[in-house]
């Protein structure tokens, strides 16, 4: 069940108990760090029995969480860093090296605190998203304006948003004129003009005038709600690389303990043995990996790309083939009738009326274009008595007692209609129409290629990604679009099952395939692909089956999202390689007696923090609502209007 946005707006629900709220210091952790430092100071400056007693007390107090964690790990038969560090601390204390024990404990505690702060910062950046929707909104009920909780607003109601206010719902403007900053949803930094009929999104900021909005979606159902949901899911879901990271961290502990045993057997030097145990750190990968994934997903969300989990981010970073559907994906999906070509003895109006009537109930973009043109020219439309749709072919309807076919040449040919061959060089896709077995003529429909599509395809190719256009349209139209956009491979006249088979074949041959689509009939191919990408304007099923949704319908954002995914992968692998290198070198140095336990602890903690910060580079900057910046946009925009 989708939870309500307002309900989760309280950040308390979001954090698990172990993590500090809002990235602040926890007094108890600070007290333990201070105790360890003070204890170490006392032993160093005033050595003696009293100092030793104080040191033991400080050690018990400061080292308690490490010890407790180690014991619970031991009981759970899990090999962790806490366990090896606890062994080292206890061993050092046992041979009377209280200073060493305290300093190692100090390093471990400080590193843990830093780790918590970094991870918490990542979560704060993301929960800022949640807190962005105001809990209350102004609604018009029975003619009066009242304040209600956002959770209580229902679709169909009207909300009023004052200038400078945040838009709390997805909906359509019914009155007012303004500009909205939608950067949080679409990643688009230019404010968009809004007037009656415009769609607005929850999470955008109304910049200038009063807007009255008819509510379509509230809370988790809004585009913004889905972004939040995706990011939260990402926090919880575990990418395969995460399991690898945890395993690797476990092996490193075993390896360090084995190396320590060997060191002891050969050198009989307890200090060197302790150094070997201490030096190998793995939190840089154990904690750095989820942080990188969280950062990657958060960053993509800021662009308006919803990635539904770490596993998909990982797949996206390895995609080598991108398959695109034509209508709605490479084109705007709003085709317009260009030309009517009635057959001899048929009038243009008759052709359009027959086609328009048959298509009245079809949701297909081509059908909408035909119906729109029929309405615009006031053609005589009739309600069809029956209506059926053949996937990838077109519609068959009973209009005024006559069977009307509207679709491609195959539809008519299958019904035994004599259709003249398709002329080449038509300015768009052609729809053929027949009534009672007689060819009535052709309707030429053209769609506009998305302005960013060409640049996006070029960028994908530059990144070494193969692009492929698969469409149900004719080879001529498909070839023209592909040539225009610089796409090398084309599959035309494809039924949804042909697309599916093609995707499955590519996946089976070892390619990592992203399928980008928007239509209902793209859903199977999206599911079969290694990664399904849906356009935000697409059908709901398509968005459901997809692993990534491009809310802003911008193919350029797809390219940027792939870049983010690749960067995330690169950072995770840097951390893996770095950790292995530091640990290997450290263990060797410690075993041959070149490190003391404190230096070993310093190397352990220092390298871990370096890798953690490496991951933190991916986190999007925590951006709060900044009135100054928005005010300047507010002044700048009207000039253009
Ligand atoms: N309602 C309809 N009216 C007219 N023609 C239709 C209709 N439905 C399908 N067709 C014909 O069938 C072809 C394939 O349709 P389909 O919906 O499978 O396309 P698609 O593969 O999703 O297209 P694209 O790749 O362009 O998005 C269309 O190009 C059109 O010629
Ligand atoms: Zn560690």
> Shape, please?
elongated
Strand content: 15-25%
Q: Please outline the major beta sheet.
A: 7 strands, mixed
Spatial order of the strands forming the largest sheet: 10-22-21-20-11-18-19
Provide the helix percentage: 40-55%
**Class from helix and strand fractions:** alpha+beta
Quickly count the domains: 4
Mean pLDDT: 85
- Attached small molecules: adenosine-5'-triphosphate, zinc ion
Radius of gyration: 32 Å
Would you report the number of β strands? 22
What is the tally of helical segments? 24
Low-confidence stretches: 1-23, 623-641
* Terminal CA distance: 43 Å
GO molecular function: ATP binding; ATP hydrolysis activity; metal ion binding; P-type zinc transporter activity
EC number: 7.2.2.12
Domain P-type ATPase A: 133-232
Transmembrane segments: 29-46, 53-71, 83-111, 248-267, 273-298, 571-592
Would you mind describing this structure in some detail?
This protein has four domains: 5-129 and 231-296 and 564-616, no CATH class; 136-167 and 169-217, Calcium-transporting ATPase, cytoplasmic transduction domain A (Distorted Sandwich); 317-332 and 449-550, Rossmann fold (3-Layer(aba) Sandwich), CATH 3.40.50; 336-446, Calcium-transporting ATPase, cytoplasmic domain N, CATH 3.40.1110.10. A hairpin with a 3-residue loop joins strand 13 (386-390) and strand 14. 52% of the residues lie in helices and 17% in strands. Bound molecules: adenosine-5'-triphosphate (ATP) and zinc ion. The site of zinc ion has 5 residues, from helix 23. It is found in: Cell membrane; Membrane. Keywords: ATP-binding, Cell membrane, Membrane, Metal-binding, Nucleotide-binding, Transmembrane, Transmembrane helix.
């Amino acid at each position: 069940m989708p939870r309500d946005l307002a309900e989760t707006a309280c950040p308390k629900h979001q954090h698990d108990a172990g993590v500090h709220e809002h990235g602040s210091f926890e007094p108890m952790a600070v007290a333990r760090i201070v105790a360890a430092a003070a204890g170490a100071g006392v032993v160093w400056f005033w050595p003696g029995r009293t100092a030793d007693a104080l040191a033991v007390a400080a050690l018990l107090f400061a080292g308690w969480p490490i010890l407790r964690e180690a014991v619970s790990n031991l009981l759970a038969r899990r090999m962790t860093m806490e366990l090896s560090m606890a062994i080292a601390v206890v061993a050092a204390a046992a041979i009377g090296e209280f200073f060493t024990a305290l300093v190692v404990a100090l390093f471990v505690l400080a590193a843990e605190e830093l780790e918590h702060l970094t991870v918490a910062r990542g979560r704060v950046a993301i929960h800022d998203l949640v807190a962005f929707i105001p809990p209350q909104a102004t609604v018009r009920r029975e003619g009066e304006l009242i304040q209600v909780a956002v959770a209580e607003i229902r679709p169909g109601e009207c909300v009023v948003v004052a200038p400078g206010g945040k838009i709390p719902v997805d909906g359509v403007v019914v009155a007012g004129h303004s500009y909205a900053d939608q950067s949080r949803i679409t990643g688009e930094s230019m404010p968009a003009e809004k007037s009656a009929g415009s769609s607005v999104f929850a999470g955008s900021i109304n910049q200038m005038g009063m807007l009255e909005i008819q509510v379509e979606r509230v809370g988790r159902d809004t585009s913004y709600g889905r972004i939040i949901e995706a990011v939260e899911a990402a926090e919880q879901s575990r990418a395969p690389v995460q399991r690898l990271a945890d395993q690797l961290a476990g092996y490193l502990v075993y390896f360090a303990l084995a190396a320590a045993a060997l060191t002891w057997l050969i050198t009989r030097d307890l200090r060197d043995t302790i150094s070997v145990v201490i030096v190998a750190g793995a939190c840089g990968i154990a904690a750095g990996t989820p942080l990188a994934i969280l950062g990657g997903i958060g960053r993509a969300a800021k662009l308006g790309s919803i990635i539904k989990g770490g596993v998909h981010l990982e797949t996206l970073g390895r995609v080598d083939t991108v398959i695109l559907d034509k209508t709605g994906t490479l084109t705007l999906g709003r085709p317009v009738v260009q030309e009517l070509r009635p057959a001899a003895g048929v009038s243009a109006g008759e052709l359009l009326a027959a086609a328009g009537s048959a298509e009245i109930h079809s949701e297909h973009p081509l059908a909408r274009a035909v119906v729109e043109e029929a309405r615009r020219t006031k053609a005589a439309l009739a309600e069809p008595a029956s209506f059926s749709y053949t996937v990838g072919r077109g519609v068959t309807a009973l209009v005024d007692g006559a069977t009307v076919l509207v679709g491609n040449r195959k539809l008519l040919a299958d019904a035994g209609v004599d259709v003249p061959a398709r002329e080449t060089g038509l300015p768009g896709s052609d729809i053929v129409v027949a009534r009672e077995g007689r060819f009535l003529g052709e309707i030429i429909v053209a769609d506009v290629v998305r302005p960013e599509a060409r640049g996006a395809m070029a960028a994908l190719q530059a990144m070494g990604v193969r692009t492929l256009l698969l469409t149900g349209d004719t080879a001529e139209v498909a070839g023209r679009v592909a040539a225009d956009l610089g796409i090398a491979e084309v599959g035309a006249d494809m039924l949804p099952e042909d697309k599916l088979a093609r995707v499955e074949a590519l996946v089976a041959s070892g390619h990592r395939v992203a399928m980008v689509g928007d239509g209902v009939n793209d859903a199977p191919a999206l599911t079969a692909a290694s990664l399904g990408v849906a356009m935000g304007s697409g059908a709901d099923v398509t968005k459901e089956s997809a692993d990534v949704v491009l809310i802003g319908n911008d193919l350029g954002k797809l390219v940027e999202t792939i870049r983010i995914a690749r960067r995330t992968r690169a950072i995770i692998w840097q951390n893996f390689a770095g950790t292995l290198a530091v640990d290997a070198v450290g263990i060797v140095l410690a075993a041959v007696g070149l490190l003391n336990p404190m230096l070993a602890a310093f190397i352990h903690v220092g390298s871990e923090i370096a890798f953690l910060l490496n991951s933190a580079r991916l986190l999007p900057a925590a951006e709060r609502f900044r009135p100054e910046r928005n005010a300047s946009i507010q002044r700048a925009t009207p000039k253009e209007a």
